[in-house]
Design goal:
The structure is a homodimer of 342-residue chains. Chain A has a ten-stranded antiparallel β-sheet, sandwiched between helices. Chain A has 342 residues and is of the alpha+beta class. The C terminus of chain A is likely disordered. Chains A and B meet through strand 2, strand 8, helix 2, helix 3 and strand 13 of A and strand 2, strand 8, helix 2, helix 3 and strand 13 of B.
Amino acid sequence: VSEFRQDPTTGEWVIVAPERGQRPGAVPKFPARSEGPRREADCPFCPGNEALTPPEILRVPAGGGWRVRVVPNKFAAVVPQSSLQARQGDGLLVSRNGWGFHEVIVETPDHWRQMAQMDPQEVAEVLRVYRHRYNALRTEPRVKMVFIFKNQGERAGTSLSHPHSQLVATSLVPPFIQRRVEVARNYQHDTGNCLYCALRAVEAAAKERLVFESPHHMVLQAFAPRAPFETWLLPVRHYAAFGDIEEAEIDDLAQILRDTLKAIGTQLGDPDFNYLVHSGPMAQDQSSYYHWYLQIIPRIATAAGLELGTGLSVTTALPEETARLLREGWPPAASATEWGAR
Amino acid sequence: VSEFRQDPTTGEWVIVAPERGQRPGAVPKFPARSEGPRREADCPFCPGNEALTPPEILRVPAGGGWRVRVVPNKFAAVVPQSSLQARQGDGLLVSRNGWGFHEVIVETPDHWRQMAQMDPQEVAEVLRVYRHRYNALRTEPRVKMVFIFKNQGERAGTSLSHPHSQLVATSLVPPFIQRRVEVARNYQHDTGNCLYCALRAVEAAAKERLVFESPHHMVLQAFAPRAPFETWLLPVRHYAAFGDIEEAEIDDLAQILRDTLKAIGTQLGDPDFNYLVHSGPMAQDQSSYYHWYLQIIPRIATAAGLELGTGLSVTTALPEETARLLREGWPPAASATEWGAR
């Protein structure tokens, strides 16, 4: 059973999950595209090895061979079995049970087909599964936050190379997220506007950090990036919960997400990366001041003492410059041929 | 010229420093102890190569062959030359000049002598230099924070293997630090006590995360660690500014810092690590509610999407268990012989 623990000096929480220490230790290497077999004998996410995962939550399509699959994380950071308890401790040292859901979304049966190589329709299918699980879990009364993310590559914290995303749903909303929500709420209080809608307007006018505008999303380089090529996919329509995304928006997001990952891969030589779906916590997911977005963070730098100790990250690339580089190669060459030629 | 930039959604700041992109790219490997030459021909921190660094700030002893040396960081995140300006931007996108001091403390002339191998007297000399520079910079009217830290090894963000620490002094106090100060201030407001003194009392009574108690410091495993074996060296005397450390406290700290690094090295196989000197910002460095401490973070795990997106770090080791492991091997075998035998 894992535990949330609160650092009394910062208010931040960590999850202490000893069971996760038993995860496969060896981190596999990622071969270049199109190399290697399409299936790995001992990969728990490859077809034929379905018995290696905990019992399936969702399979698409429902019967027969699957294209996307959702399973509980075998080495979960949080689990729904532990009973949710009130805070315990002697006042200074506070902990709570690590209650929650931790799911893995297996994005494709193909072990070596990374998202940047997929067709937009395949990415759309993954995003529809995100939406389905988000909406299933948001109705759980104790769930206060549904966070969806992807770790690709060793430097991004992945221990499995098969393309997959993760979903963590908890009863706890970390201060990190509360602060983000607070900033948006204060902005609306002060100005009457949504912070993210205002940002979109400023960036559309400034143009220098703008990579691409699709009908439903803006692709931009973060003004204050934590890493070179930090990219935001910002919805045009104002809504707080990823689960409320509509059909046309999913198709649009799938196309630009695939294109953005491909463009970053071209510029940086297929870097390891994380992407994060910043959706509103349940208390705010229908609010007028929050606005979800997807953030991509390439992992080409290492956080050192300054960042760990002060929160100040040092980045070496100007976002105005990385935006220019991404624009120059936009749209990236389509990968449909690779897929069709298999 | 580098720039501070504020993320409008979180209030966090980053430093955009394009010049740092020109740092030596290749990251050297760390050989096992006692291997290799004691001096590296192309290392800018080795004796004989003093001309490769910017003009020296401090040398100990003052004349002739040095034991500790302070120089400006050649690839500084902040520089004192840029004029300090008020916030600029259109309200949403805020930036400030990257004004400040960024210094390197070369801890020893010996290229391969890491701190865990030093004699306590050598470590004490390094700590006295920290104090000297801290106190020199805290009198600069524009300096609001002096942050001292050490990155050892590639995974800790070092590009140079020669033993060194760093000091960054800025006019900006990042929200990350402001929040830490706020938590301590609120605690004192609510209870009348110092949060860190209260923590020390709780940990002394609980004993399970306690590694060692010296006359002037407590060595403990963090209750809510961001990484396995996260260790705090907490001063017994209540004071906020590292610069106010006294002679006997320096000697005591040098001994337990060396011992702790050696013990962690033994348990984890000489991991890369950062250590951070959490001193109060200038506005609070004589306050009754803040209390400085030194935090050691071994870098054996990688922050993944969950931590980047929610601030929730997942750690696999129980601090009560790591405390037991460190206690079992305490005190670690002395290294004086190694040094004497050279």
